[in-house]
Amino acid sequence: MTKGGAVLFDLDGTLVDTAPDLAAAANHLRAQQGLSTLPLSALRPVASQGARGLLRVAFGLQPEDAAFPSMRDAFLEQYRSKICQHSTLFPGMTQVLRWLENQEIPWGIVTNKPGFLTTPLLAALSLPVSPGVVVSGDSTARAKPDPLPVLHALRQLGVESRQSIMIGDDHRDILAGRTAGTQCWAAGWGYVEAGDLLENWGADQIIARSESLELALFHFHATQ
Fold this sequence. Notes:
globular, Rossmann fold, 9 helices, 8 strands, six-stranded parallel sheet
């Protein structure tokens, strides 16, 4: 086991700002149906929910609706075709990843995004530091909020859960990390719907701004 644990990031809304490209895919489908473009501000809060959230806001569709599967497939294909036109690391994340590398702290990504989207997105982003592990939504039998993806990432990195941190902008990230035995930090800069209070998630810390994360990690590891 590696002393000091690891840092695990959710992808959309935590490590990478993917909302502009996700919203563009939803608006492309709206345009095909003769509907007006929705502002990014309307779609951004549900971007971490993927097709489920974006199709709900863009078309009023729920997963149980008959039209949902075909619209979901069309949405995912459109998004895949232009997956990294405007997506970027959140402010300060380049410095965070380089700090982790300099401190020899392993890090990884645990996302519910399926692998056929995760892999090309990460390739297009050209991250300044390569993750030690990437667990996509279909890498394990169950996705977050189940702890299995987090536990799988920790095993791949060879670290202990109690000294590791799961960072995410969705309640599912906190639930998965908590059950897996990690520290859980809520990413206050991410995609959170109005009325979904981070204070109710049970996170160990709420980091309001991505630019503050490096200092928070420094303080955490200084006390270990």
